[in-house]
Amino acid sequence: MKYFNCEIFAIIAAVTFAFAYDEKESPYRSSFMHPYPPFSYYDDGTDPGEALFITPLLSNDSLTKADVRNIALVKGKQFLNVKSFAGYLTVNEAYNSNLFFWYFPAQESPETAPVVLWLQGGPGASSLIGLFLENGPLKLHSDGKLKKRKYSWSKTHNLIFIDSPVGSGFSFTDKAAGFARNEQDVGRDLHEAMLQLYELFDWQNSSGFWITGESYAGKYVPALAYRIHKAQQSYDFQGKHIPLKGMAIGNGLCDPLHQLKYGDYLYQLGLIDDNGLAAFHVAEAAGEECIRKKDMVGAFEIFDSLILGDLPKGSIFKNLTGFDWFYNYLQAHDDNCFINLGNFLQSGATRQAIHVGNHTFHDMDKENKVKNSLMEDYMDSVAPWLEELLKHYPICMYSGQLDVIIAYPMTRNFLKMLKFPDADYYKIAPRKIWRVDGELAGYVKQAGNLIDVLVRNAGHMVPYDQPKWIYELIYHLTHQKHAL
């Protein structure tokens, strides 16, 4: 295989499914899928207020940190009296690159609670998806109204949401060069943002900092963690210490070479037949060859043809299965969990309250400059960073049992390839049953700092499907309780 040209592989893959599955016979070719459904532009005509930039206020000698916090306080009855702070953090003055954050102090013991950062994937998705649909203190119902979430992570954690990389959600840059081109850029910008947040808020007595996220954030999480780790090893943190304690990654894309193997998985689920399996195997081999040759753009185009379907003919997955939803193999179509969120976030009242003014909200839109800028990064691996981090910090890799896009067997495949001190034990470590209040929640395998968790009856967005179980998992992890 290694002697074949990537372009030849791509042609073989294209021919395999283009001729085998006639366009006229498939009603699904006209629409594409996205890691998160894009939101439509919305303007309700009300005053959005002015954007708040925190960074210059931090260096203003006439303002105390308490003054700045008061300025950043989110006001508005629509948020049900849940205390929070929001605004922009400038991470690159030359390009006017700014990351939007929204911070919710812990409901219980905020002075000592762990600080937890949540990052959405995409690339290009807003972390406010996680806030309102997964683990934040407020959830948006289909009627467009907010209600308090029972199992929010903010109950016992100081919880931060950042739209990252620059260009995601409300985050923005004035220059094309301000967009991240790789995970080093992502980690650098997030690190700068967190240094400012640690300067602004009273977290000195907190029990440490944890980085969490899902999907493509399987790259962002280790990118920030590795940046913090190396900075603190070299004492290059501008006199500011971020007490990194560990990470949690849900259904994360970390190592495409060893993860993106869909054919066997879909075949075993009964979603494709032998012909479909052959088509997947051809395309997967093509993608692997491109990665090994460092042709990351070619590898992405093949991955896109396999599952994402941003190209005109759609994806092999969609054309063979009829699915236009790859978050849960029990659901063929979008369950509309994102409905109303785009309009709510873009309303004048929300914009004014969270201090974003009239800045455009980008979330997996047609431009998706974030994704385009990261094209070379998409199929690259963060496994070397994870191998180094596992020597020092606990890392929980949790997976929803029903996911397709980053299915559990794919994550297991890449975890078995990692080289870290307990790698040999991980391969033979016993798998334990995990229960929450007597309910069978899933299964846990642990080897040293690596914690591998399967969450039952959950898809790609585990906190959305099983909020109670994942809250218990995160609580045990961050509060360093006994094994599950």
UniProtKB/TrEMBL annotation:
Residues 1-20 form the signal peptide. InterPro entries: AB_hydrolase_fold, Peptidase_S10, Ser_caboxypep_his_AS, Ser_caboxypep_ser_AS. Keywords: Carboxypeptidase, Glycoprotein, Hydrolase, Protease, Signal. It comes from Drosophila rubida. This is Carboxypeptidase. One of its GO terms (molecular function) is serine-type carboxypeptidase activity. It comes from the Eukaryota. The lineage of its organism: Eukaryota, Metazoa, Ecdysozoa, Arthropoda, Hexapoda. It is an enzyme of class 3 (hydrolase). One of its GO terms (biological process) is proteolysis. Belongs to the peptidase S10 family. Pfam families: Peptidase_S10. Its EC number is 3.4.16.-.
